[in-house]
Amino acid sequence: MTISPVDFASLLCSRLCHDLLSPIGAMSNGLELLADETDPAMRTRCLELLSESARASANKLKFFRLAFGAAGGFGERVDMREARGAVEGLLAENKRLTLQWAVEEAELPKAAVKVLLNLALIAGDTLVRGGTVTIGTEEGEHTTEIVLRAEGPRVILDPDLRATLTDGSGGESVTPRAAAAFLVHAIVADAGGSVMVTDPVDNTLLFGATLPSRLA
């Protein structure tokens, strides 16, 4: 499926607004409570909640800049410490999620990093009751391979997201919720690579992507 740059930009903006609404809304509510609250203990608690919401907002913005935007500079490769920090910040908001980082490369092609980050976003969303996201990569002479495992008590991947990842939604319209999946599909397809998603087995779901190194 093809989509105009303007429509795709709108999808990404909708996704950003949706994900940032909760922490920013919490900050707004916290400021209103703080203005009227006189009890010292409650004011302290309000400040704690404001701090948590501000940190969550900053973490999401850092992640989205790298996953969707031009963060990482204009070079062809990205330091994986930056990528790991972005994923850790994203998953930290949900205390039921943990990250296992099995990436040995010091840096990877920028396109591969964007695929990795967006797959991490999708993998985290599939763990509706919490769990572990494991991320591994391998860069060879000709290809860069990315593998993510989502494991938890309940793993659910929306059929629309699966279709968007593997074939660009198969001609159906792409929703803002599927913006990350469409970005993965577009990057990999443009590079001449492939995306794989397994069916859940034993509460485990695997995502994989292969990109030719010369184009990644």
UniProtKB/TrEMBL annotation:
Pfam short name (any one): HPTransfase
Signal peptide: none
Histidine phosphotransferase ChpT C-terminal domain location: 81-197
GO molecular function, one term: transferase activity
Keywords on record: Transferase
Record carries keyword Transferase: yes
Keyword Repressor among UniProt keywords: no
Name the UniProt record assigns to this protein: Histidine phosphotransferase
Organism: Sphingomonas ginsenosidimutans
Source organism phylogeny: Bacteria, Pseudomonadati, Pseudomonadota, Alphaproteobacteria, Sphingomonadales
